[in-house]
Specification:
Length: 65
Protein backbone atom coordinates (compact mmCIF):
# COMPACT_ATOMS: atom_id res chain seq x y z
CA UNK A 1 0.00 0.00 0.00
CA UNK A 2 2.84 2.42 0.81
CA UNK A 3 4.31 1.89 -2.62
CA UNK A 4 1.06 2.81 -4.37
CA UNK A 5 0.55 5.93 -2.25
CA UNK A 6 4.12 7.05 -2.70
CA UNK A 7 4.08 6.57 -6.45
CA UNK A 8 0.63 8.12 -6.84
CA UNK A 9 1.60 11.24 -4.91
CA UNK A 10 4.75 11.78 -6.92
CA UNK A 11 3.11 11.07 -10.26
CA UNK A 12 0.36 13.62 -9.52
CA UNK A 13 2.96 16.34 -9.00
CA UNK A 14 5.41 15.14 -11.63
CA UNK A 15 3.82 17.44 -14.21
CA UNK A 16 4.54 20.53 -12.15
CA UNK A 17 6.30 23.28 -14.06
CA UNK A 18 8.18 24.43 -10.98
CA UNK A 19 9.77 21.22 -9.72
CA UNK A 20 12.02 18.49 -11.02
CA UNK A 21 10.96 15.22 -9.40
CA UNK A 22 12.79 11.95 -9.68
CA UNK A 23 12.00 8.74 -7.85
CA UNK A 24 13.81 5.45 -7.59
CA UNK A 25 13.26 2.07 -6.01
CA UNK A 26 16.18 0.39 -4.27
CA UNK A 27 15.67 -3.20 -3.15
CA UNK A 28 17.78 -4.30 -0.19
CA UNK A 29 17.34 -7.61 1.60
CA UNK A 30 14.13 -8.21 -0.39
CA UNK A 31 12.63 -4.95 0.88
CA UNK A 32 11.70 -2.20 -1.56
CA UNK A 33 12.91 1.20 -0.42
CA UNK A 34 11.93 4.37 -2.23
CA UNK A 35 13.98 7.48 -2.57
CA UNK A 36 13.03 10.71 -4.23
CA UNK A 37 14.30 14.15 -4.93
CA UNK A 38 12.22 17.25 -5.42
CA UNK A 39 14.13 20.31 -6.59
CA UNK A 40 12.99 23.60 -8.01
CA UNK A 41 13.76 23.71 -11.72
CA UNK A 42 15.31 27.16 -11.36
CA UNK A 43 17.90 25.91 -8.85
CA UNK A 44 21.32 26.92 -10.22
CA UNK A 45 22.76 23.58 -9.01
CA UNK A 46 20.08 21.40 -10.59
CA UNK A 47 22.43 19.42 -12.84
CA UNK A 48 24.84 18.66 -9.98
CA UNK A 49 21.96 17.65 -7.70
CA UNK A 50 20.58 15.27 -10.33
CA UNK A 51 24.03 13.74 -10.85
CA UNK A 52 24.49 13.27 -7.09
CA UNK A 53 21.07 11.64 -6.81
CA UNK A 54 21.81 9.30 -9.73
CA UNK A 55 25.22 8.41 -8.24
CA UNK A 56 23.54 7.67 -4.89
CA UNK A 57 20.98 5.37 -6.52
CA UNK A 58 23.60 3.53 -8.58
CA UNK A 59 25.78 3.05 -5.50
CA UNK A 60 22.99 1.50 -3.44
CA UNK A 61 21.60 -0.59 -6.29
CA UNK A 62 25.06 -2.09 -6.84
CA UNK A 63 26.03 -2.30 -3.18
CA UNK A 64 27.72 -5.63 -2.40
CA UNK A 65 25.72 -7.96 -0.16
Amino acid sequence: MRERLFLRWFKEYEQSDKYYIKISEIVAEKVANYTAMIVQKNNPNLEAIIKDFDDFVVFFKNKPD
